[in-house]
Specification:
It is a single chain. The protein is α+β, with helices and mostly antiparallel strands. The protein has two domains: 110 residues, no CATH class; 144 residues, Four Helix Bundle (Hemerythrin (Met), subunit A). Helices cover 41% and strands 20% of the residues. It is built from seven helices and seven strands, in the order αββαβββααββααα. A hairpin with a 5-residue loop joins strand 6 and strand 7. Helix 4 packs antiparallel against helix 6, helix 4 packs parallel to helix 7 and helix 6 packs antiparallel against helix 7.
């Protein structure tokens, strides 16, 4: 499923918060524990709030809180920290202020995309790191997705090093590795190249959150196609073996 962009871009309040996905069970079951919310004013608020021109909605600070999975057999806790500001609505007694929370860190971080079970751990670890960085440092998140591609290509048997004339090992660039992979899987290679370009932007400067989400979506599609295709191939192979009651290799004689 593509990244649910609203989930990762919106702020939340005590009464209106997104249905974050539990990093342990994968369901959208995280509930905000109101008693865990802790807010502190920031330095700017402390030093400026006594000034004449101060307005209540200038107030800003930091917060921490816990979300808990509502499923009893999971009960995972996710700690969240970030920035808090005051917003206001017109109530019966005039303006009523309420806290608006902007999450920056989640620990453990929920997954933004579905990663197939057969996906290698080396790729999974880079995606998990990208998920943890998405709100605090989108550029670094894009860069970790670039690392996920490197790990994916290694798993696919694409060489990482080359031997120079001086008999020294040198890294093969990611771009060249994707070119090498193109002869085997041209469609996947094209998609990986797109993630690489986005990762490059992350390495060299600012990148919009939406572009990082694009990279997540493309990578999820490649993994889904690649590893579910493996699952299908294994299912067909098992069917053939069972039908023959032995190896599928024609040169192998079956014992009856
Ligand atoms: Zn859970």
């Amino acid at each position: 499923m593509p990244v649910i962009r609203d989930l990762w871009t919106k702020n939340f309040t005590k009464t209106d918060y997104p249905r974050y996905i539990c990093p342990r069970c994968g369901d959208a079951t995280l509930k905000l524990l109101l008693a865990s919310i802790f807010e502190s004013e920031d330095g700017s608020t402390s030093t400026n709030k006594s000034r004449e021109e101060w307005e209540p909605d200038f107030w800003a600070g930091r917060f921490s809180c816990d979300f808990k999975c509502a499923k009893d057999d999971c009960a995972e806790i996710v700690a969240v920290v970030g920035r808090v500001t005051l917003s206001a609505v017109h109530g019966e007694d005039g303006l009523e202020h309420y806290s608006e929370f902007e999450p920056v860190y989640f620990y453990p971080a929920p997954n933004l995309i579905d990663v197939p079970e057969d996906c290698p751990n080396s790729v999974r670890a880079e995606i998990a790191a990208a998920c943890a960085l998405i709100r605090c440092d989108p550029a670094s998140a894009a860069n970790r997705l670039r690392c996920a591609i490197e790990a994916f290509l290694t798993n696919e048997g694409v060489r990482r090093f080359t031997l120079s004339k001086q008999r020294k090992y040198a890294n093969v660039s990611l771009h060249h590795r994707i070119d090498l992979y193109k002869s085997k899987e041209p469609e996947f290679a094209e998609m990986l190249l797109a993630v690489k370009w986005l990762g490059n932007v992350g390495s060299h400067g600012e990148i919009a959150l939406d572009n990082v989400f694009d990279a997540f979506d493309i990578l999820e599609h490649v993994l889904e196609q690649r590893f579910h295709r493996t699952a299908e191939r294994i299912r067909v192979l098992a069917g053939k073996i069972n039908k023959r009651r032995g190896p599928v290799n024609k040169r192998t004689r079956r014992k009856r």
